[in-house]
Amino acid sequence: MTMPLRTNYFTFSNDQQGIKMITDSLTEYSLRLAKIKAWLTLTGPPDDGAFPFSFYLFNSSTKKIISTNQEVRENDTLGLILVTNTENLSDWDGIKRYLYVFSIDCNGKMQLAFPRNGNVENKMPLTDEAGKPLVQMNLGEKKLFKVTPPLGTDTYIMLETVEAIPDPGVLNQAGIRSRGFNSAAKGNIYNELLNIGATTRGKVITPTDWGIQKVVVKSR
């Protein structure tokens, strides 16, 4: 997992308006960088095995799972899957979680990949008629997105939460080569988590009923 190499360049003019623009830009981009670093280094609560399901990317053409540190190619079509760890399934607490997957690209852009339309079909795992989790589940469409520039090291992060995030769009953030910032929804129990890097400054995050998984891939 790597940080972006640089931010945008800014044109400096030695007058009051120019100095204010530079000051505001440095503040805004510092916050974005702090949020990116926080997500890249964040670890969840201790894993007690109560949610024995693993998140992966897969190549929609080859049907092969893409694990951390594997490479993808420009124009590859990818999807997201959840795989049941059958050997540890007996540890499952029986509680379905809301899953949210977002990416952080090499330019620092954070983009929600799943779910695309609010909290729709993102409560997992899917189960059969007997209530047993399926072995493998698609998170969204099988062909969810295509690998396009900027190419480099990208991180895909899956959040597991017992309660739904009212506005999953808070996980979007413009890169450090563009503008715009989203804050977490007020009053949500995960507000502190969703604003990590902007407000938490590394302190322990509550509540504890959430989890996180990451997959890092290189695109060429």
Radius of gyration: 19 Å
In quaternary terms, these chains amount to single chain
Note the overall shape. Answer: globular
Q: Uncertain runs with pLDDT below 50, 5 residues or more?
A: 178-183
Helix content, binned percent: 10-25%
Biggest sheet overview? 6 strands, mixed
Would you count the extended β strands for me?
11
Arithmetic mean pLDDT: 84
Structure description:
It contains two helices and eleven strands. The protein is an alpha+beta fold and 220 residues long. It has one domain. Strands 3, 5, 6, 7, 10 and 11 form a six-stranded mixed beta sheet that branches. About 3% of the residues have low confidence.
Map the helices and strands.
Layout: H1 16-41, E1 53-59, E2 65-66, E3 71-72, E4 77-84, E5 97-104, E6 110-114, E7 123-124, E8 136-138, E9 145-146, E10 153-161, H2 191-194, E11 210-219
Parallel strand pairs: 3-11
Antiparallel strand pairs: 1-2, 1-4, 4-8, 4-9, 5-6, 5-7, 5-10, 10-11
